[in-house]
Amino acid sequence: MLTTRFAILTLIFALITVNLFSQLNNIYSIVPKPFSLNTNGERFAITNQLRVSVTGHPDHRIYANASRFVRRMAERTGIFLDEQGFVTAKDTNSASSVLIVIKRPGKLQLREDESYFIQINSKQVQVRAETDLGAMHALETLMQLVSADSSGYYLPGLTINDKPRFTWRGLLLDPALHFLPVNVIKRTLDGMAAVKLNVLHLTLCNDQGFRFESKIFPRLQQLASDGNFYTQEQIKDIVNYASERGIRVVPEVVVPAHTTAILVAYPELATLKKEYTLQRYFGVFDPVLDPTNEKVYTFLSKLFTEVAGLFPDQVFHIGGDENTGKDWNNSRQIRTYMRANGIDSAAALQTLFNKKILPVITKNKKTMMGWDEIFQPGLPEDVIIQSWRGKQAFYESVKAGHDAVLSNGYYIDLIQPASYHYLNDPQPDDADISAKQAQHILGGEATMWGEHVTPETVDSRIWPRTAAIAERLWSEKDVRDVDDMYRRLDIVSLQLEQLGLCHLSFKNTMLRRLCNGYDTRALQALVDVIEPLKIYERNQGDTMYTIFSPYTKLADVATPDQAVPRIFTKQVDDFLQTGDSTLETEIKQQLLKWQNNHIAFLTLLRNSPVLQEAEPLSLHLSEIAATALEAIDLIQRHETAGKQWVQQKEMLLETAKEQGGRCELQVVAPIQKLVNAVSGDAETSSTESTWLVSTRQ
Amino acid sequence: MLTTRFAILTLIFALITVNLFSQLNNIYSIVPKPFSLNTNGERFAITNQLRVSVTGHPDHRIYANASRFVRRMAERTGIFLDEQGFVTAKDTNSASSVLIVIKRPGKLQLREDESYFIQINSKQVQVRAETDLGAMHALETLMQLVSADSSGYYLPGLTINDKPRFTWRGLLLDPALHFLPVNVIKRTLDGMAAVKLNVLHLTLCNDQGFRFESKIFPRLQQLASDGNFYTQEQIKDIVNYASERGIRVVPEVVVPAHTTAILVAYPELATLKKEYTLQRYFGVFDPVLDPTNEKVYTFLSKLFTEVAGLFPDQVFHIGGDENTGKDWNNSRQIRTYMRANGIDSAAALQTLFNKKILPVITKNKKTMMGWDEIFQPGLPEDVIIQSWRGKQAFYESVKAGHDAVLSNGYYIDLIQPASYHYLNDPQPDDADISAKQAQHILGGEATMWGEHVTPETVDSRIWPRTAAIAERLWSEKDVRDVDDMYRRLDIVSLQLEQLGLCHLSFKNTMLRRLCNGYDTRALQALVDVIEPLKIYERNQGDTMYTIFSPYTKLADVATPDQAVPRIFTKQVDDFLQTGDSTLETEIKQQLLKWQNNHIAFLTLLRNSPVLQEAEPLSLHLSEIAATALEAIDLIQRHETAGKQWVQQKEMLLETAKEQGGRCELQVVAPIQKLVNAVSGDAETSSTESTWLVSTRQ
Questions:
Q1: Rounded to the nearest 5°, which phi and psi values hold at A545?
Q2: Is some CB atom of chain B closer than 8 A to the CB atom of A606?
Q3: Which residue among A17, A24, A498 places its CB closest to the CB of B603?
Q4: Assessment of whether the complete model's pTM goes beyond 0.90
Q5: Which of the residues B187, B549, B554, B633 would you substitute to probe the A interface, choosing the one with the greatest number of A C-beta atoms within 10 Å?
Q6: What digits encode the pLDDT tens for the residues B596-630?
Q7: In the CATH scheme, what architecture does the domain B168-491 have?
Q8: Was domain B2-162 assigned CATH 3.60.140.10?
């Protein structure tokens, strides 16, 4: 009977779901993984009696944070915790169900104590921390620990001791290239706090625009922002929002290159004297400040002082990257100057420039920071170096006595998987530096360069991968289990969404736009197995983006680090090792779906010309899926394929690697393995599993 | 073979999809429906050669608007229109592919000309309008007309003449009850512009909080806002954003009741002298200003003048609703005053109060507006009345010479279907008013009162239903086809989403939170057939909300005006009329899904206690679905049911009407019809279809 069949299927589905849910309630799901965790078998029941108290000597920020904790707990559990609208300095009852004990106010500065201790038993949740910064980290951990079963919501009984490995755990946001409204910055800060990131690096200008309201040099936002900039009130709002969450905000005003925007407003500061217009493309450009012009230093002195006044952080970033040196070399005046002063290279001239702006920074009681191009002979030691071009430069600057932050390997704009970033350690065992030198390693920073992100897509490029980087920078060096990281990342991804981040929800909206309708299944099936081109491949070929280009196409709905190909790859690997028949069924089901998806995709295509660039990907997916099914068939029949078949399929697979709509299929490699398994090639068969070989006996 | 079956199913799916897509490209999908539309069979191809020019004498706002039009066109079609970054006053080429001709700058005021003419042929898209306001409406119409087929994107050849029926087409947003950040206001304004709404009514305060930064009376935001208020810079930003889209912003500072927030800051202005704290509940409360205290008028004079300075609109709303009169009646001083001045009721005293604040408004060159409680004898004619309590009061105020805006019947917070609001006409044929009096009907306003909405859910309560109200207020009176309205509403809903509105995308996020996982199907199936309690039922019983309550539960993921019950009801009606076997199959498939859903729901429940309140709904859905299947079975076998069966099922159906989690099942009525059809009751069988009766012969 139809009913019975449905019931059985539902039961099977239910069993699978139960299994999934036990994982979701696993207490070992915290990201970043804490220093130590010990369970005690009890549980603290979350009820409408939950009250939070704070004792000790905290910074005032703990109260708003604890109030938000209560609200988030209510939103998460549906329990009305309305009796405690706010946690205030009056809430000091040490018998409170949730007690936070803080020794002293925390300072938003390098190397501040962010440690915390949590103890949960059936009676109380206790948080103890040196500073409110640690206490706020504890509250985030508690949010991640919320569990449930049929008896209700609870926190599992345990004790946690936790502290970060590195003091600088940053994320760079880049409103210079694509402007990001204040609400996007704020929700990003909420996400950062959830995974204990503590530095927001904000690029305030670049060739494409100046994003800061200057009252001293108003031509900057009037002429060089297209109306997209933060007012001073908004800057204060952002800085305050971050501070309330224990996050430092480091401003960057990049000089002397990447200054087209500044030169649109004040061309007299340029090396090459002409009229400048905002750069609409993305890349590296020649406009550069004139380091021999005293007016430049006067200007920067005033501007930097103005910016420094609005950003209370100790660190002031002056960029310093990607100076082509071309306008300097083409300037007779500058060549003359260099000869007269014994400066033999653009790099040396830039070092002179950096040394001349350093006093501006120090007079504002700030520490200067720049990209690794500024790490040159003669650069004073008390400049922080941010390394992006390689580990070698990173360690050299550390050895030379500079505090340093690693971004190389954390370039999340390059669309690489979380595992790649996760395994990228700022201080691996083979790093050739002493323990003393290693003290200069402040930590690392993920960089969300703004070339190809908009407010609609930026969350999907940051999350959840950046949570893996957050763990790399917080947790101990030996925490490197990639599978477990992905398991926990899936859970954290949902928690991040609850903070208002759109990395999951944006996708259906974009799919609907691309399909011009509600039924997006055929496109979703394709999007699940593609990723945007990686590294710098996207902005090439016949598609050169400008700031006006639409980011609502295939490469924008596609996201990095897709799960379906990752899971499929593992299934194929396991199947080729073991020949497991359940795996075989699952793999074949998936392949059938892909094989048959193209028909439905073609129907979508009829009314969505924007999807034409995806057609080759969809066709290739169908073809290589059919190929894989044939390969599995051969494996089942203990046969190897004919030479012609192999040749044909090799060509298919090669074609299937081609990009479409600036994206690539991610399932070619596992299907290649299936083809290899039946190709009868001596070379590949030597790596085959015993099982595979045995099938052909 | 599995493959063939899949292929056939896919083909069937494809055919259904094609049918759906032809509907989506129907040129008669504009909301609001234009005054007249005539096709000419041509088409204008949208290519990367698209350029927009503007001639005539427009207000500057057309340029930013036209620039956004180009960007939106690029995002919609994926075509790179980067060559035209901005439309500027230099773009005046009358041979441009898109030409906008504007006679004169439009003023953001009542009764301004908002008409437009569109002509589309293969060579050019021409927009002609008296004002830029009309031209901007035309651009929104053009965005809705974007069509596509395999040859590419195009605009269908046609001419449109269009103009609004009413001049006041408003939406009230209420950040007083639940604060709404600036980005929520802005995306709402984008949605309003898309459906040609032109007034945003903003409530700046209520008992729960004061949401406006006063520099004259800073205690207001310091003591009475919980930190949630708009700075003056933000107000200017909102007003400017609206103005750029042809939308007027009408501020409301409600007096003399609903003033708890003001009295928290300035208790000396109260009737009842005591200390006030912010009201945390929702409802009608007693705190009220003292109309006999001159200080009140001094205060309001300064405050109103400050607010008026930031809101350039002609109209200033002073609220005036829901004054219980209790504190007045309990005040000996006021009773004495009333006796001494011959004032015999609270309403009369409030009229005196209104007359005393009117000069403040008029000295600021504004027109006063208030809710219909202020429509009392003695109220000057030049006060605009906003009617919410009924049509009678509405027509009375119109007859008395007041300009009037209708909100009764447009209370979108009451969770009624779009059809209800759509058929609610400000000037129906049976309205007992003359043509001259009818000139006082300015139009209408949808009200999004903030009791039960948050930034996460507010879009789903406004959209897409408010688009139906927008049509009621713009299009001609005889445009009343409900089915066609719903068809077009489905399409417009997708377009609204593309503007950043979250009414569709919020749901999956909330489902995932409630399920604490990725698989939400069982909950979605239930949510598809429930709606939050309507009218004022939600905030009753054992669930009294405060501003601290979580809005992340069943009644928040559930949305008004569900499509699945509506479609199912129609299917059942049609089936009972015709006995069509395809319908029968579809209905049974749906019923089987509902019947079997409860098992999967129970699995979700095991780890999501927050869903316990939904369990009865899920169980009842399963039970009445089983009931309906039994009824259809009886119909198939040409039998009537036994008396006991009928009694049993009537009880089941009655129970199934009960609320769960402040929601109700919406499929009880159609299933009741199926039970009636086999109940053999003489009364019901008289209304049966010939087909049904014939089945039993």
A1: -80, 150
A2: yes
A3: A17
A4: yes
A5: B549
A6: 999 999 999 999 999 999 999 999 999 999 999 99
A7: Alpha-Beta Barrel (3.20)
A8: no
